[in-house]
Amino acid sequence: MSKKQEPKILSVTDLSTSEAKWVSLKKVEFVDQTGTPRSWEIAVRKTTSKSGVDAVAMGNIFVHPSKPPATMLVIQYRPPIGKYTIEWPAGLIDEHETPEEAAIREMKEETGYKGKILDSSPAVASDPGLTNATLKLVMMEVQLKEEDDIMPDQKLDEGELIERVMVPLSELYDRLMKYAAQDKYMIAGKLFYFAAGVHFAKNSGYI
Amino acid sequence: MSKKQEPKILSVTDLSTSEAKWVSLKKVEFVDQTGTPRSWEIAVRKTTSKSGVDAVAMGNIFVHPSKPPATMLVIQYRPPIGKYTIEWPAGLIDEHETPEEAAIREMKEETGYKGKILDSSPAVASDPGLTNATLKLVMMEVQLKEEDDIMPDQKLDEGELIERVMVPLSELYDRLMKYAAQDKYMIAGKLFYFAAGVHFAKNSGYI
To answer: Which residues cross the membrane (chains A, B) (predicted)?
Structure first.
């Protein structure tokens, strides 16, 4: 990436639903369990795949013959937040793809590596008070050879500027906390929860 | 809760940004790292607390003298998804509250229990490709007495219908997978990621 400058937000303006290309607002009218009519406002992505799931995120493990297992995180400027986020590679599922096909494709595009799928989660709700968006967490393994120690080329879409960082799995939680302590970064919630789960299992004494 | 019927969605209609009360659409104009002007469409909550964080979720541990440590999950109908979601208790932070005050309040309202805060996470991004919404994961402990085996009253807001279920921490991942296998339920992504992190730490052999 030819990085000339820090990204800068120029303006944030109201957008009408009819002008929006990617996201719309909807009003859901429903009857609740007691028979009471209610309504709820939601944000809806205009892109949806035929699979019924919007997105995939790749929980990835890099296995190297002589180094500890590690995971590749991606760092990108996220205009909704106005900061760089730390996330696992992720992307929207194309219309005619399965979630697992999207996971292989997006992993290759964002990290440069071909991963092997270990496990694909049920569809889960991204932020169920706000949106109908769903995703699958696809766990992937990348087997490295002894000589693999460089970052292969990414195949990013036009306008995508994604930095990669490799973190030993045993250091994931601590590394996220260090990023979070810097004002220019914010951790993506789902990755943080995974790391918090690992940290809890290892350190809490409860489990 | 007087549950007479299953909730039912009657209609989903376009909502204009000017009519919406809780959510709006915004267009962010920004300049990226290469100096290229770009734009991004985002969903924004109209409610924001002075703390700069939108919401809290309570990762809770119930400790009992003679039972294994457990966590209380909440099940509620979520109109954006059209299903019942399985989540940790959570809520929006009121305007003049700290995140930690909101965590204590919401925990009491949704579970009926007063929790003690063990840890409060950095603000993390709820769904950073779609929205500016942020939250903190507040880990809480509730110390039960030998005789505590019933569910105390909740203090729900009008219209809130939330069921509670207590799950031993060691069974969290398997129990979530059982819910996910039923069409009427969907797991909230962040809770799933935490459980997946615990499961990964315990079973993957990588860490």
So the answer is: none
